[in-house]
Amino acid sequence: MAADAIVVEHLRVVRGGREVLPDLSLAVPEGQVVGLLGPSGGGKSTLMRAVVGVQVVAGGTVTVLGEPAGSPGLRHRVGYLTQAASVYADLSVRDNVRYFAQVVGAGQDAVERAIEAVDLTDHAGARVENLSGGQLSRAGLACTLVGDPQVLVLDEPTVGLDPVLRRELWQIFRDLAGQGRTLLVSSHVMDEAVRCDRLVLLRAGHVLSDSTLPDLLQRTGTDDAEAAFLALVDAAAEDGR
Fold first, then answer.
1. Is the sign of the CA dihedral 32, 20, 72, 138 positive or negative?
2. 4-77+150-238: what fold?
3. Which stretches within 30-91 are classed as H helix?
4. pTM of the predicted model, to two decimals?
């Protein structure tokens, strides 16, 4: 049985005087693609910020690869892709990746490997401002990969992309998991559930479900992730949550 790469226990986060995550616990197994799904404003980004150690927490613990989230020892082992592209528009793809390689102490070979991994070799010399939306997402991913992280935290990496580009990115995610990496990927698009090994459905800071898609569909008696999510929302409302 795979060990857990990420363990969250009784996490509580308060932002702007509002309790965003009241008491959240979950585990992410090593070497899997775990989808964090739910509507906008449900706490997905806050949870991801806590996992990478940049979120102030009011209580609970977050452990990544056996160390407290945000520990110095995790800086080269955890990659974080934010919703907004964290790349420089006036630089080329290669120069962007080279810059982040210098930050994490990676060599030129790592730069070229990261660019190749996201299938941007033919656009390595192109300025980021001239890339398409899908290419921009892949450029950001290359910058995240250049340090060879074991855990990747990807915050809505496919938002705004058409189905073809989303499929291409998800194939990259599957390839990375096939190399033994752990991916925590957030989305509000329910049809992306079929691409994940495991699903965490989050709403209003609460975990409604943490299981595989087949288990989720069997438990709710539904045919797809969206119907299952709505069934869980309805059940929670009946329970007064």
1. positive
2. Rossmann fold (3.40.50)
3. 44-52
4. 0.92
